[in-house]
Amino acid sequence: MISRKNAVKALEDFGITGEQVYLIDLIPLIEIMWADGQIQKGEIAVLEDYTGP
Q1: How far from the centroid of its chain's Cα atoms is residue 21's Cα?
Q2: DSSP at 51
Q3: How far apart are CA 13 and CA 44, in angstroms?
Q4: Cβ contact 29:19 at 8 Å
Q5: Could you give phi then psi for residue 35, rounded to 5 degrees?
Q6: Taking the domains of the chain in order of start, what are their residue ranges?
Q7: Closest to 30 in 3D by CA, of 53, 50, 3, 14
């Protein structure tokens, strides 16, 4: 398993930095939210916790 630090470094090698890394973290979360065709309250709570106020 790759550490987050090493993953961020690997992304930097492709020119992906800062806010772009933050947005990449959202992709799996959004995929999970839409996996069953309905967004659950718990999934919304996780998204809101991650993205902040």
Answers
A1: 8
A2: H
A3: 32
A4: no
A5: -55, -40
A6: 4-51
A7: 50
Average pLDDT over residues 11-23: 92
pLDDT(40) > 80: yes
Encoded tokens for 40? 């659950």
Q: Which tokens in the block code for residue 32? A: 């999970």
DSSP states of 1-50: ---HHHHHHHHHHTT--THHHHHHHHHHHHHHHHTTSS--HHHHHHHHHH
Distance CA(39)–CA(1), nearest Å, equals 29
User: What is the tens place of the pLDDT at every residue in 23-34?
Assistant: 888 898 899 898
